[in-house]
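User: Fold both of these, please.

Assistant: Here is the first one.
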Amino acid sequence: MTDEPETTYLVSVYENPHWRTVLTTNDKAKALAWAREIGDNVRIEEITPKPNKR
C-alpha cells in the first residue's frame, strides 16, 4: 500500500440543462481520449485527495 494519494480524473459530459454523465478513470491519457472522442460540452476535472496527517 502506498502513502501517496492517487489522482482521479472525472470526464463530465453535459447532455441536457439538468443532466450530466460522468466517466471516471485514474489514467490522464484515457480521460483526454474520451474527451476528444465525445467532442463538445466536455469538462475534465482532476481530483487528488490530501494525504492524511498522522
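And the second sequence with its predicted structure:
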Amino acid sequence: MTENKLDFWTGLRFEITNSGILDAYCDWIEPKVYYFELNPSVVEGRIGFLTPEMEEFKFKLTIDKMIEDSSEIETIDMKHWTIEKKDSGFNGNTLEIKLIK
C-alpha cells in the first residue's frame, strides 16, 4: 500500500469517527472488493470500531465519482470530501458510507 493510499484510508477512518454515525472510534478499514468504472464507485470490505469493545462489521463505501482503478483512490484528498450523513448508516450488519465532494 502506498503512502498516499494509506493517507486516504487513514483520513476516511477519522472522517467516519468524527461523523457520529457510530459513537465509537474507527480503528481499521480493510477494503476487499472494488467496483470500478461505476458512477458512483463502490468499495466493500470489513471495518472495525472500538466501542469500547472491538466490534467488526461489513462496510460498503460509495464514492460519488467514477474510479477507474485502485491507484485513483490515492488521488482522493479527504479534506475535499465529506460523509453524507443522511445516506450513511447501518443496513443490517453493513455500515453504508456515502462519500461526496
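The beta strands are 25-35, 41-50, 54-63, 82-83, 89-91, 94-100.
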